[in-house]
Amino acid sequence: MNTKKWLLTLVFLLIVLVGVPWAINASGRWDFYYTLTSVALLSIASAGVWLTFYIGRINIGQGAYTLIGGYASAILVTQLGVNFWLTLPLAGLACAIISVFIGLPILRLRGVYFAMVTLVLTEVARLTALALPITNGAKGIVSIPLPAELSLFGLTIIPDFATLENPKLAFYIAAVIMMVLCYAALYRIVNSRLGHLCRSLQQNEELSASIGVNTAYLRVIAYSISSFMGGVAGASFVSISQSIYPSTFQVVDSVNFMLNCFLGGLGYVLGPMLGTLMLYFGWDLLFTMGKYQLLIYSSLIILLIVLLPNGILSLPLFNKRGGGPK
Length: 326
Hints:
Elements: H1 3-27, H2 31-54, H3 62-79, H4 84-106, H5 111-119, H6 121-131, E1 150-152, E2 155-158, H7 167-190, H8 193-203, H9 205-210, H10 215-241, H11 251-264, H12 271-285, H13 293-307
Antiparallel strand pairs: 1-2
Helix pairs in contact: 2-7, 2-10, 2-11, 2-12, 3-4, 3-6, 3-10, 4-10, 8-10, 11-12
């Protein structure tokens, strides 16, 4: 990463970690903490969907992994007493393992066939959560405690959120840090040898296989990383809402994760982040339109996809050097 990108990253961190909290505290709109925290976590799940697009697959099943990750974290915290912060990687790992078993057969499918199979995954996860005793069925898992203190060798790394004066601010900062780490990892993957090989799958799988690229291995790796991100995002949502139900993540959420990628730009690493921000606030802004909200919303999405097929980041304002992962 060059000096200019380091400076831009530093400015971004100063804005989101210092500027935004100052503005919220000055305005007294504490509800914005929850809104922006949700945007940060949704963008993490969307980043996983973007990575699946990067290998040439349309993923409409990320809602399944956010739901699985949320239940995994809730069960570990409430029934086994595991520290919430330790459940984050465990929930992500559980989703990654499940995705390997699911992905091995369906990743062989292409285009609309793969998309249609992933579309049913969220509903399957929801029905499974309804049926299993460990998930408490339709009642869900409630009264989940706030994240406890995380310490190492007697040194407090993360304080107990229940003792904080403003847990909403703590959740916001934690979500932003996780989002930054997620996109930093995504940027590193895309610009590594693994990322270059994954991009070759998007262009021509037969050609990649003919020169010795293990296409099946790359597809599974990308899909498991995608699902890991979804699991971490879902587990984080559980800690904020302190509850989870089979309907917490539905098919519409999976579709929105995909739309976030389209709206921001499939050719840009930060596309899902910008797409999530615009889609989330755009829907809220249209709330005043009443019964016409959905009609206007869907029309605008179609119009944007037609006029900007490469996403908002393809505008000259953001993209001065042409396309490609940034």
